[in-house]
Amino acid sequence: MTAASARAQKIGRLVLFVCAMGAMSGGLAVPLPDKTRAPVVNDVDRLTLRESILRAFGRSPEIARQAAQVGVGQAQIDEAKSVWYPQVGLTGNVGHSRQYDSSGSLDNAMSYGITITQLIYDFGKTSSNIKQQTSIRDNYRFKLMSSMSVVAEDTALAYVEVKRYQALIDAVQKNIVSLEGVYQMARLRAEAGLNSSSDELQAQTRIAGMRSTLEQYLAQLQMHQAKLAVLTGAQASRFADIPPGLAEQPVSLDNIDYSMVPAVLAAESQQQSAEYGVDKARSEYWPTLSLQGAKTRNQTRNDAYWNDQLQLNVDVPLYQGGAVSSRVRQAEGSRQMAVTQVDQAKLDVLQKASVALASWSGARGREQAGGMQFASASQTRDVYKNEYKLGKRSLNDLLSVEQDVFQAQSAEITANYDSWSAAVNYAAAVNNLLPLSGINIGPANGLPELK
């Protein structure tokens, strides 16, 4: 067994076990398509990122299709192996048949019997076909794992967006509370004759503006919740924190393990399949040896007799008009194309990881700057409030610093969740998203432990 086949079997068991355990743990299933039934979204109290991904696995038609394709690939292997087994058949004929030999002629009215054919050796035709079908089955498995990575990434990104707008809404609500406090101060000072009533109007205008921003964020939150609900089939009222391991994963473009990336493994298995295809095409130049036995009952007009047969058949292709050489050239061309697909898959992984890393680094820098700005603006706000009470600052100064506080906090939140999105993209690129989301691969048989 090749290393690629071993990895394919390991990931295949992982995929099937994850889907099965996800179905059992969450009451999920991978249903057959039903054109008369609309997708159902159920209400749940709380969702975690792990539960969201598992639910998305059970709901995705693409994953169900790829899983069925793996079954087709296994059946193709069994079909290729069947050539090595005896081929047994029944024969029967009814009608006039005349045979001539040295003793005269013999008329047959009916014949029936059994034939058995056993392949002895075909110079690699069947073995190459079995290896090729095994590589194709492995390719289906890796494509299934790649589809799971795509679904997990889409689900995780939607989950991050929900958490983002929840944080922004919380920031807006806190700012509205703070502005209402400013309004109360302005109203009390206006009633005491310390400033004009226009200060109250300015504060009310600023509060109205923040309420408009709040409605915009609420609309965005509902949109991303709806997207997540479609992916998972669950509409939650609460969402758990994002696993901190996503932000703590090792990041290095020089140490990407391409042997664990499904897209690269799928391309490599396709290359292996093309190489076996070349071997299979070349083996058609060689003969095929088989042993054939038959026992036939012939019924004449006046008598009946048995005809026994045991022969060694040799099928030698001498000339086929260049068909075999053409198939060899086609197979060699397919192998060359498969080699380029492996390189392209690695470049795609590197590009996606590089972009994610750059976005991650930039977001971290913006988050630190936003945090410093927020701390400075919050301190300034406290000073301005005291000075406004003493009449040393105008209301415009206080409203302006309130806006600075909100903008700094919004920038920090936005940068924080931009870094989470980049972390998800990087983890998906290097096939590390599932374990970081809580779907861990245990030591026994390479199967996951769903804790």
From TrEMBL:
Keyword Transmembrane (UniProt):
yes
Q: Which Pfam families match?
A: OEP (PF02321)
The record's keywords, sorted A to Z, are: Cell outer membrane, Membrane, Transmembrane, Transmembrane beta strand, Transport
Q: Please provide, in alphabetical order, the Gene Ontology terms of the cellular component aspect for this entry.
A: cell outer membrane; efflux pump complex
Official protein name in the record: Outer membrane protein tolC
Keyword DNA damage assigned = no
Q: Which SUPFAM superfamilies match?
A: Outer membrane efflux proteins (OEP)
Q: Indicate where this protein resides in the cell.
A: Cell outer membrane
Known Gene3D superfamilies for this protein?
A: Outer membrane efflux proteins (OEP) (1.20.1600.10)
**Primary location class:** membrane
Specify the superkingdom: Bacteria
> Into which family does the record put it?
Belongs to the outer membrane factor (OMF) (TC 1.B.17) family.
Q: Name one GO molecular function term.
A: efflux transmembrane transporter activity
